[in-house]
Amino acid sequence: MTGFCEKNGIIHKTSTPYTPQQNSVAEQKNHTLKDMMNDMLVSSGLSNNMWGKTILTACFILNRVPHKKSNLTPYELWKGHAPTLNYLKLLGCLAKVALPSHKRSNIGPMTFYAIFIGYAQNNPAYRFMSLSDFSISEYKDAEFFGHVFPLKKDLPHIVSNVMPEHMNLPTSSSSVRDLAIEPGRSKRQRTEASFGLDFITSFLVEVLESFDVDALTNEFVSLFLLEEDPKTYQEDMMSIDATFWKEVIKSEIDSLESNKTWELTDLPKGCRTISSKCIFKKKLRTDASIEIYKARLVIRGFNQKKGIDFFDTYSPVIEIVMIRTLVALASIHDLIVHQMDVKIAFLNGDLEEEIYMSQPEGCEVPGQENKVCKLRKSLCGLKQAPNSGTKSLLPL
Fold first, then answer.
1. What DSSP string describes 16-52?
2. Where are the beta strands (DSSP E) in 120-161?
3. CB of 384 closer than 8 Å to CB of 377
4. I want to staple 118 with a disulfide (CB 3.0 to 4.6 A). Which of 29, 47, 127, 334 is the partner?
5. Model-level pTM?
6. What is the rounded CA–CA span in Å between residue 372 and residue 358?
7. Domain that holds residue 70
8. What ranges make up the beta strands (E) of 315-362?
9. CA-CA distance, 26 to 37, in Å (whole number)?
10. Is the distance from CB of 59 to CB of 33 less than 8 angstroms?
């Protein structure tokens, strides 16, 4: 093979052992041939041991199907002329084959019944399997009965024995096969039950009337009056917990300012600002009571432009092999391993790009509302935040 390729100027490349996915084109064609072979075996009723001859028939048909890009068949590209398709027949159908002259006798049948199983490889003939002795032979003259499949099981008769009498049984074999394997599903239209707000209100009134109002605990009240987390700053200020939200917002802004995350400045000419948003979350206990209110300022990094506002976005990540090595060394030397979680890892990273953020909503500095925040450290939501934040925590 190597000598043949070198002689004809062919560069013979091979894929890595046990990695057939590298030869994607061939694997896709193999997958197509296998699917065709499986469908042809099922539809014709041939046994599984006929898969080799069936896959040759599938390849024979695909070579005569036009390609979607060139609109030419492989046969036409190889032979130089379009193929004739009037001799294509259904695999597994019944055929009445005429015996050749040297096999005929003056007394006896001149034909025999067989099953069509494919096409000859080196001559324009058909391949048949005799119904009498199951021998395989090639002949050219035959009469085909495309609607008769001798080896195919009588699926309508099988399904009719287990189906109710009032149900209409499909006549085509493909419909019967789909009906036999399709799971039963109810055809009743499903609607979601909704009792409305009036039902909830009346239910709460009845519950509250059954209790002593003075004996109601804070946990019980919070269980029924628990609101959803506010999505915007306006919802936050209109909430019944507005006092708590204001406190946690102030705490978040003070933490960012104490870490010198930004500095107020005038927006330079030609630059643009990126807006920010506060995310609010209530942390609950197991009894559904509120444990703590949390607010986190997040910049809208999806408005950043690559090459202007950010460059590298990757984050250094340690491999599991290194972690296993460190644990093994700690076990050998009888060391104690401590795990640490840096909650403000992003705020430890210094930004190399110039990024201007508008002042957080509701937290504008009095008298400096027109100024913007020039970020000095990375903020949660930035494209480069994982890169700059983890880079600052790497050991020297």
1. PTT-GGGSHHHHHHHHHHHHHHHHHHHHHT--GGGHH
2. 126-130, 136-139, 142-145
3. no
4. 127
5. 0.37
6. 5
7. 2-145
8. 356-357
9. 16
10. yes
| Strand partners of residue 138 | 127
| Backbone φ and ψ of 238, nearest 5° | -90, -5
Q: Is the pLDDT of residue 204 over 50?
A: yes
Angle formed by the axes of helices 24-44 and 173-181, to 10°? 100
With b meaning 16 or more CB within 10 Å and e meaning fewer, what string describes 172-190? ebeebeeeeeeeeeeeeee
The distance from CA 149 to its chain's CA centroid, rounded to whole angstroms, is 40
* Residues ≥6 apart with Cβ < 8 Å to 105: none
Give the helix/strand (H/E) hosting 295: strand 290-299
State residue 9 phi and psi, 5-degree precision.
Answer: 70, 30
Cα separation, 174 vs 178, in Å, equals 6
Strand partners, 113: 96
Q: Are residues 38 and 136 in the same domain?
A: yes
| Residue positions counted in the chain | 396
pLDDT tens for residues 259-303? Answer: 888 888 898 888 888 888 888 888 888 777 788 888 888 888 887
Residues 236 and 278 grouped into a single domain: yes
Nearest Cα to 131, choosing from 146, 151, 152, 147? 151
Q: Are residues 297 and 341 in the same domain?
A: yes
Please check whether residues 286 and 368 belong to one and the same domain: yes
Closest-CA residue to 376 (of 358, 352, 359): 352
pLDDT tens, position by position, 70-105: 888 888 888 888 888 888 889 989 999 988 877 777
**24-44 vs 51-62: helix axis angle to the nearest 10?**
120
